UniProtKB/TrEMBL annotation:
Annotated InterPro entries: DUF2001, XkdM-like_sf
Matching Pfam families: DUF2001
Name of the molecule in the record: Phage portal protein
Taxonomy, superkingdom: Bacteria
Length: 145
């Protein structure tokens, strides 16, 4: 069967939601789960096998600087009387020509840095927020009709 190019998903229709609100300033998002493995040496073969021993979720959202909301939320960790900002994000792809929407809920999201200030004269200000997460759930899946 030949690939129907109209069904290829266009990233223009990607969305990030936080607390049910679409973060309209986000222009790219990525989330991955790294599978940690240990090597297992076995008698009678030169082949090394692998045993899965853990999972680690990482990601990044990047976009235009519009407010200081995330600086404030992530930055509460700098106050010794406050705890870590832990949240959830929902990432969504929904190209109207695709076979449907794809949504992933990221659980236990914690950010890796507090983006206090970054700018360049004559340029639009953007910020990058790398994060870790401790679980995910596929909310909507895409399957060919």
């Amino acid at each position: 069967m030949v690939l129907d190019s109209t069904r290829v998903i266009n990233g223009t229709y990607g969305y990030v939601y936080h607390d049910g609100t679409w973060l309209t300033n986000i222009k790219s998002a990525e989330a991955n789960v790294e599978i940690t493995k240990e090597e297992i040496k076995r008698a009678g073969t030169r082949w090394t096998a692998h045993k899965v021993t853990g999972l680690s979720g990482t990601g990044t959202i990047s976009g235009y600087k519009v407010t200081s909301e995330f600086v404030e939320r992530i930055g509460k960790i700098a106050d010794d009387s406050q705890g870590t900002f832990i949240t959830e994000l929902i990432l969504k792809l929904e190209d109207p020509e695709s076979y449907g929407a794809y949504r992933v809920r990221l659980k236990g999201v914690t950010f890796d840095k507090i983006p206090l200030m970054h700018f360049e004269v004559g340029a639009i200000v953007e910020e990058e927020l790398p994060f870790n997460f401790t679980g995910y759930e596929l909310l909507d899946k895409i399957t060919a009709e």
